Amino acid sequence: MTARADFIAGNTRLRARLPALLAPFDYDQLAGLSRDAAAERLATSTYRRYLNRDQAGGSLLDAVARRLRDQLRGVRGLYGGIAGTAVGVLLARHDLHDTLALLRGARTGQPAADRLDAVMGVGALDQRSAADIAAAPDGTTAVIRLAAHRLPDPLTARALPPAWERYELTGDPDELETTIAAAAIDGWTDRLEWVGRAARPILELIQAECDRANLLAVLRDPAPQPPRLLPAGLIPVPALLAARRGDPQPAAATRPGWRQPLERHLHDGDLIALGWDLDVDLWRQAVRGLRRGDPLGADVPVGYVLAVECEARTIRLLLAGTAPAHDVRDLLV
After folding, report:
1. Rounded CA gap, 324 and 273, in Å?
2. Mean pLDDT of 176-201
3. CA nearest 303: which of 321, 275, 283, 317?
4. MF terms per GO, please (predicted)?
């Protein structure tokens, strides 16, 4: 029998961090400002210590990235035992992103510094390991180093060499990255199912993110056969294909919050807007769980991690003048 996951101490510490997140007033003040004016406004908030490090070009977006890293680093360490295993999956999402970014940089010959800049380093793949992998002269060496470090996790590390061998035969980067992502997600699912009911909010997040990625991939690809997909969340492939044919009902029956975004997509065909709307639904659920879910369970780390990810993405979009602020305010903690 699996011991009970204890989230209480970690949740208490995470809740103490919530006041540091931006509030609706902060977003309203940023909307429509120039980059210089936005920097001045952010300098009066909790972003101040990040902006004061330098004022060189691009420092505003660098400050957003540094703050996001600081908010996420250490989250795993707040939880011990079985709860820590579950919370580790939240940060493993970034480990997967970092792994794919390092491999992409290696196989396309990007400078090592650029590869390292793309790394979050908030989970198992830390900055020291990332620097070693980023210095690899080619993709083969990067794969060898990832496997040697057992990154992003031991299971996925074992899947890397055969996936790379297949890539060398086919030259298909989408197949390479989907294969690696699928191996990671299968491992996460196994871990969360081992934890049991206590990890349900994290498993639901992973399933929703898989469904989102798969839906957008199917809608983007006009070929009769579905493209390479991640492990299914709750929406089966036939429902995804029905959405591509113009029938959102099967997908919406599984995920009711996606009905309106899918219906809008039928009229405007805007995949970027659809992706944002699906993210909004996911973020709203996470924040709702943080506010009203089980204060002693995994709703709190899920809500916190998504809240800080949402803040960083939203600030970037506001700085670019592209964020739909009327949606943004509804997401805030």
Report:
1. 10
2. 96
3. 283
4. proton-transporting ATPase activity, rotational mechanism
Cα distances from 40 to residues 36, 53, 70, 212, 316, in angstroms, run 6, 14, 21, 36, 15
For residue 108, give both structure tokens.
């396309």
Long-range contacts from 24-32, C-beta under 8 angstroms, 24+ separation: 24/329, 24/332, 27/314, 27/318, 27/325, 27/328, 27/329, 27/332, 28/325, 28/329, 30/315, 30/318, 30/319, 31/318, 31/323, 31/325, 32/321
How many CB atoms lie under 10 A from the CB of residue 2? Answer: 9
CB 319 within 8 A of CB 37: no
Q: 316, 294, 299: which is closest to 66 by C-alpha?
A: 316
Instruction: Give the type of residue at 205.
Output: L
Contacts of 215 (CB under 8 A, 6+ apart): 235, 240, 243, 251, 258, 278
> Token digits for 220?
């983007």
Banded model confidence at residue 258, pLDDT cuts 50, 70, 90 = very high
